[in-house]
Amino acid sequence: MNFIISPAPHIKEKYTVPMVMYIVIAALLPATIAGIVFFGLQALALIILCVAAAVGTEFVCNKIMKKEQTITDGSAALTGLLLALCLTPSMPPFAAFFGAVFAVAIGKQIFGGLGFNIFNPALIGRAFLAATFPVQMTNWVAPFVYRGVEAVSSATPLALMKFQHQSTPYSKLFFGGVSGSIGETSALLLLIPGILLALRGVINWRIPASYLGTTAILGGLFWVIKPAIYPDPVFHLLAGGLMLGAFFMATDLVTSPLTNKGMLIFGVGAGILVVIIRLFSGLPGGVMYSILFMNAFVPLINKYTRPRILGAKK
Amino acid sequence: MKTFKQGIHPKYNKSRTEDRNIVEAVLPKKVIIPLHQHTGATCEPLVKVGDEVVEGQKIGDTSKFISAPVHTPISGKVTKIEKLPHPCGVNILSVVIEGDGEKRDVISDTPRLRSGQARDVDVSPEEIRKIVREAGIVGLGGAAFPTHVKLTPPKDKEIDTILINGCECEPFITADHRIMLERAEDLIQGAKLIAKATGAKNIVIGIENNKLNAIERLKTELRNKPVGNITITVLETKYPQGGEKMMIKAVLGREVPTRGLPLDVGVVVCNVGTAVAVTEAVRNSIPLIKRVVTVTGSGIKEPQNLMVRIGTTFQEIIDQCGGLNEVAAKVIMGGPMMGVSQHTLDIPIVKATSCILVLSRHEVADKKLYPCIKCSKCVDHCPMFLVPTRLAAYAENGKYSEFEEWGGLDCIECGCCTFVCPAAIPLVHWIKLAKLKLRQMK
C-alpha cells in the first residue's frame, strides 16, 4: 500500500485564498446593488465592464508571462469591482476600461501578481484615471434621475461641504441617495458587511477602527475650533468614500501591515491624511490618496512593528 | 481559565478512544529497538548478534550525558544489528530481537533496577536521578528529551516548581488522558519523586478542560491522600497548550527566555506518562520498555489505547486494532499537528510514539498552493509571536542570517501557522529546514 507522505501539520483549516476573495466580493454586493438602484443601468454596465476588463487583463498577463492561470482566484474580479465602485456613474466606458487594465497590469501583475503588489490595485486604477481623465472623474450625477431624463450634474456632499460649506442630511449619507461614486453613497450598506467581515476575521478590525476613529477625532478637533467652516465628525465618517475605503480598501490583505500594532499605525496614518486632504488640499476627498500613501509605508511599518517574541527582553 | 495567547482551535477528534481503557498489547515475537530514541547522543550496542537477552536488559548505552540507554522489552535472541527504518524518517542503527512469545522477569543492570519487585520509594535525589537514567526514561510527550538531564539542573539554577503536563493538546491522542484516569496514584507518586530529585517545593498538574473526568479523578486522589504541595490547574483547550513555554506562561505567568530552557525560570516540565514511568522505575524497578499508544483515526477499524512494548512494529499494533480500513491513506506517528507521516508499517514503536494516527485521503486533502497574500493569519496565531510568513520567505531564499535575526530559531514547530494559512504554504516546514541548515552550518 502506498501511503501519502507530506510534512506536518496533516490537518489544515478549510480556508483558502479564493474563499477570502469571494467572501469580500459577497460583502460588497449590498453596496453594489444599491449603486445599481441609485444610478441605473449605466452603473451596472460600468461594473460589468470593469470586472471583465480586470479579469481579462489578468488572463492576458498570465498568458504573456507564461504563468499558471489565476483568473478563478477571485482577486482580479475583486479589483475590477472595487474600481467600479469608486468611479462616478457617468464615467465614460472606455476610460473605465483603461482604468481596470491599468489596475491589474500595472497595479498588480507588474509586481509579480497576487501577493506581491505594494499598492492597492483598484486604487492604482482610480489614481490613474484621476490623472488621465480628471474632468470625467469628477462629473458627478444625482441618483434616481436616470429614468428617461438626461443625467443631471450634481456636486458630491464632500464638494458641497468643501467649496460651499453646505452640509447634507445625515440620513441621506447613511442610508444612501446622494451623488458620488457608485459604491459609496450608502454608509450603512458598507458598514454592516464591513463589520461582519471584521467579526468573521476576514479583515482585521484594527484597520477600519483606527482609520475611522482617527478621522473622526482629528476631524472633530477642527470642527470644535471652527464649526462654521469645518464639518463635524459624523459628516466626516459618513460622507465620501471613507466607509468603502476603511472596510474594503485599507484592509486589502496584501497591501496592509502584518502586525496588529502595524495595522493601528496604518489606520491612524491614513486617518490623519484623509482629514488633511479633505480640509486643506485642493481635492474634496482624500480616501484614495491616504490609503495609497500609507501602502507605501507598509514595508517600513512591518519592519518596525515586529512582535516581541515570547521570552524576549521587554 | 488560564491559557496562553494566540494558538489555534483544531477539531479535537478524541471521542474514538477517550473512553477506552488502556489494554495490554499482545507480547510481540519480534522487536526492533533503535539505538537512538531520544534527543541527544546515539547509544552503542551492548549486545552482539546471537546473544540471549532477558526482558528489561539494557542493550544499548553511551557515556554521553544527554542520552538515554535502551532496553529490550522481550526475552529472546539478538538476530540483527543494522541500520533500519525509524519512524522519524531516516535509518537508525537498531537491534532486532526475536523472542519466544513468553514473558519473563524484568531485570536490569543496576542493583535498584532488578527483579520487578515493589521497593521503598524513600530514596535520595541522587539515587532517583541514577535510577531514572538507568531506566532509560525520556519525555513521553513526544520530544523524548532524556528525563535524567531535566532532573539534574545546573548548580546555579534553583527549581521551585514541577509542572506535570496533562494537556495533551494534539488532536486525536488520548494516551495521557487515560493515564491520568487509570494511573492517578502512580502519576502523583512520580511527580513527588521528580520534585524530590530537583528540590522543587511545588507541583502543578496542568490539564485542558476537555478532560474534566481526569481533573476530577486527580482531585479525588489528592483529597483521599492529601499531599500539601500539589495543585491542579485547569487550562483552556487550545493548541499548543502542552508546549512547555506556553504551559509555563499559562500556569505560572513566567516567560522562558528566548533560546532558554524551563529551568531558567525555575521550572521542570514532565509529561504525565513520564511521571508514571519514573514511579515504575523507582518503585517497581521496571525500565522504560512499554508505553501507552493511542491507535486511532478514520483509517483504523477498532481504535484503542494500547500498552505497547517499545520495538513492536506498527503493522503488528495496527493488526491488533482490526487493521486498516479502505479509507486509510496516511499513517502518522504522533498527532496530526506535529506527527511524522510514514511510508511503511515495518517500523517500530519508539519511546516518543504517543500515537499511531491513520487518516483518510479526504481528511488530509491538500489545499491548492497560492502566493502569500500577507493576510497575517500566521502572525495572529503564532504562540511564539514570530512572523512565520517572513521566516518562511527567508528560509526559501536561503537568507539564513535574516532568518536568525527574525527569531527563526525560537520556532517551536507547532504548525499553527501552516494550519491557518489560506495559501497552503508549508511555513513550518520551511522554518524547520532553515533551522536544520543553521545547525549544520554551526
Treating each run of at least 4 consecutive H or I residues as one helix, how many helices of chain A? 14
Give a count of the beta strands of chain A, DSSP E runs of length 2 or more.
0
Mean pLDDT of chain A: 90
Largest interface (CB within 8 Å) is between: A-B, 41 and 66 residues
Radius of gyration of chain B: 21 Å
Quick one: biggest sheet of chain A?
none
Strand percentage of chain B: 15-25%
Q: Can you describe this structure?
A:
The complex is a heterodimer of chains A (314) and B (442). Helix content of chain A is 59%, strand content 0%. Chain A has 14 helices and no strands. Chain A has helices at residues 17-39, 41-64, 75-85, 93-105, 121-132, 134-137, 157-164, 170-175, 188-199, 206-225, 233-238, 242-249, 260-280, 287-304. The radius of gyration of chain A is 20 Å and the shape is globular. Chain B has 442 residues and is α/β, with parallel strands linked by helices. In chain B, strand 5 and strand 6 (70-71) form a beta hairpin. In chain B, 57% of the residues are buried. Chain B is built from 14 helices and 17 strands. The longest helix of chain B has 15 residues, at 184-198. Classes of the chains: A mainly alpha (314), B alpha/beta (442). At the A-B interface, helix 1 of A face strand 15, strand 16, helix 9, helix 13 and helix 14 of B.
